[in-house]
Specification:
alpha+beta; 3-stranded antiparallel β-sheet; 5 strands
């Protein structure tokens, strides 16, 4: 199928999709509707919210501050938390703090920090969602 013909069919499918609200076209090559529906379903997440240790600020005892890194349009900002942890305590894959020692007091601090991370991450995602609804994609990382 040639590109102009495929493009014309895709345009018809877009019009049909707006009317029917579901991409089921009756064309010979239904890839155009399928592609269009898949493009609508995939919503790109433009803001990255990641908890991590700031390894450039090592403390005297070898601990690092726990920060929440926000990246949007290649601009990076960090929000500092009141917690400091050693590198062995932070799991970068799970983005959570793990208790490696058997100290009960340290376990409470780890649990509190994990609850704090979950709460802050949800709040930041809600703020990003409201900014997305208000400004579209025009907001920056400083607006967050």
């Amino acid at each position: 199928m040639s590109y102009p013909l495929w493009r014309e069919m895709q345009t018809k499918c877009i019009r049909l999709f707006k009317i029917v609200k579901l991409g089921s076209c009756q064309h010979i090559d239904s890839r155009c509707c399928f592609t269009f529906v898949n493009q609508l379903k995939v919503k790109k997440k433009m803001t990255s919210i990641t908890p991590r240790l700031n390894r450039s600020r090592e403390g005297r005892d070898g601990s690092y501050p726990l920060v929440i890194q926000i990246i949007r349009h290649r601009k990076k900002r960090e929000i500092y938390t009141p917690y400091r942890f050693w590198e062995a305590e932070f799991n970068t894959r799970l983005e959570m703090v793990e208790n490696v020692g058997g100290n009960r007091r340290r376990l409470l601090i780890v649990r509190e920090a994990n609850e704090y991370l979950i709460y802050i991450k949800k709040e930041l995602e809600a703020i990003c969602g409201s900014l997305e609804a208000d400004k579209g994609s025009a907001y920056t990382v400083d607006d967050i």
